[in-house]
Amino acid sequence: MNKIFILYINFSLAILFGQSSIVIPVGASMTVPDNAYVCAETITVNGNLISSGVNVCGITDPDAIASILEASALNEDGYYKIGDEISITVEYNKNVLVTGSPELSLETGSTNQVARYSSGSESLILTFNYIVQEGDLTSRLKYVNASALSLNEGSIKDLQDKDADTVLPEPGSENSLSSNKDIYIDGIIPTTGNVIDGLDENDLEFSSSLSELSFNWTGFNDNASSGIKQFFIGIGSSPEQPNVESFSDVGTNLNNTFSNLNLINGSTYYGFVKIEDKAGNSAAAVSNGVTIDQFPGPPQVVGYLYPGDDYQLPNNHSSGLSVEFSEPIKDVAITISSPFGSVTFDSLWQESRTKLVYSFASPIPSFSQLDVSLTNITDFAGVEGTNKIITYNTSALADYNYDSNIDAVDLANFILAWNTNDLSNELGPSTGAVPNLAVSPDGQFNLEDVMGFTRMWHWSRKNTSTGKMLSYYGQELSFDFDDNNLTVDWLEGANVGQFEFEYDPMYISINQNNQPQNNNLELSYIDTIKGFNSFAFASRLNDKYQLRSFNINTSAKVTKNIELHYQFYNQVGVLLSQGSQSIKVKAVPVEFALHSNYPNPFNPVTKINYDIATESFVTFTIFDILGREVITLVNQQHVPGYYSIDWDARGMFGTNVPAGVYFYQIRSEGFIKTRKMILLK
């Protein structure tokens, strides 16, 4: 039966040699003080064989060399990645002291690494640490050979200061590292491939969904090392990091669809795919980005103010014009120009940037053209649309009814605006040349406005097409034409009247007789080349017109027609009457005259013309060279006019007169004239 020893040793250093076998049963104890040792062939505690301990040894020979029993590791079996620390243990049969930094050379692939001593001095077990480096690879970690433990200018000694043995168990043999532990070192970073926006091989540039994004990936592998364990996928608003959806485990799937997202139209999103091998090494790749285009296709202009080709943009247009787009617009360049320069404007986005409203901040030219140019039309996805030019014809200044003719109705509207102080219809001050005037309103009606209307009225008269008859409306014009004077009755209730005459300018001239009335606006335009005269009259206050009188002169020998076109409007611009009248202008000489006969000399007939200016009794007589009466051709009352008579060289009895010199004479009240003619035979 074995005896149990309870030893209390109080000296500084003692070595106790006991029997070949020490057994400490359950419930018993043995205390070994510091710096004391118990050595036996075997030591069994609680039924377990103890082969090492701080104060326990299994050495029977105190002079024996400290030698290595086994190599192992504190790490569990499994895969280890770059940066992981492997703690390798080397166990001696007796306690050893370590100085310096001994190293353990490890077989780790193309480049061998070392595990450096870290702890265990004055004990049986020494620990060496090794951190997995990129490029390291071994399916079962082992040291390079039995001599892999090097002192590296340090030392390993037993407690008797004898050099310890550094020979390891042969790699792969019993008690070696690779025999005791299955540690897979994977320092190879997995290979990334391509991350594709969408679910097929065609990478999407745009997506219309605001809640869903899909990605797939190809070319990822870890063929050179531990193999793929799983993939992680996330979404980022930039190619820097997945800040929209963090990485989530998708196993070994090669595609994934995210749902219930809150994506922003026009933003670009990037798919991140991270591959992780069995050791935990990982690498990530990112897609080239997919832009959210909620409205597929390029943006388009889908609407703008354009009632028709005949539409004229009012010269005083102040409200905003608008352009509507097929989708929200991020950027557009807009310029407004005319043949006379650019036009400044203010603009404002409305309806979630699908409608651009702009208003003019500078005057627009009259009777011109505006080009609204829209370029760089870009939606929030960065898709650029086709440039667009919208062209507007601007109305003529003072053309209130937009018929390209400044006439009586416009004069009526101008007077109405003046009387009611409607400043939206100001016509001055203006700059530029007629008709392309640009108005800069000054907030009052004054001479500048009168000048604006006058200039445009004259321009319109100059460019009016003649020969256009006005359809009859209202009361027919009442007039009297006598002794070269045309007197027109002013229509009762009318504030504005306009009279336009068309005539043959070679023979006829027309002017007005009346003097201008105070506080009234009176305009006249006389074109003696075209034969077109226009007169406009407007009563601003209650100084009503009654009659308008015009002087009409003619130099024609025959009756001529003139065309009179008239219009009357009341004080609020309502048409009261209009129409056209054809007036006959009879030929009336301004003085008596006797003209040369023709031909002269003659045979046998000659023609003689004479003019009668006033109603008179007229005699026309032929005399021979001796003054004897040959024949009286005319002896009667004449009304004013142009006359002609033929003489066939016969006397008062119808007989032919001889060749020679003859005289013809006309007599009337206050006028006598004689001329000579020659008869040839």
Give a structural overview:
- With 681 residues, the protein is mainly beta.
- The chain folds into six domains: 44 residues, no CATH class; 119 residues, Immunoglobulin-like (Sandwich), CATH 2.60.40; 99 residues, Immunoglobulins (Immunoglobulin-like); 94 residues, Immunoglobulin-like (Sandwich); 191 residues, Sandwich (Immunoglobulin-like), CATH 2.60.40.680; 87 residues, Immunoglobulin-like.
- The protein has three helices and 53 strands.
- The protein is rod-shaped, with a radius of gyration of 62 Å.
- The termini are far apart.
Number of domains: 6
Task: Give the biggest sheet.
Answer: 8 strands, antiparallel
The average pLDDT value, as a whole number, equals 89
Number of strands: 53
**DSSP strand (E) fraction?**
35-45%
CATH top level assignment of the largest domain:
Mainly Beta
CATH architecture label name of the largest domain: Sandwich
Low-confidence stretches: 1-19
Distance between the termini: 200 Å
Taking all Cα atoms into account, the compactness measure Rg is 62 Å
User: Which range best describes the helical content: under 10%, 10-25%, 25-40%, 40-55%, 55-70% or over 70%?
Assistant: under 10%
Question: What is the fold named in CATH at topology level of the largest domain?
Answer: Immunoglobulin-like
User: What structural category arises from helix and sheet content?
Assistant: mainly beta
Shape: rod-shaped
**What is the number of helical segments per DSSP (H or I, 4+ residues)?**
3
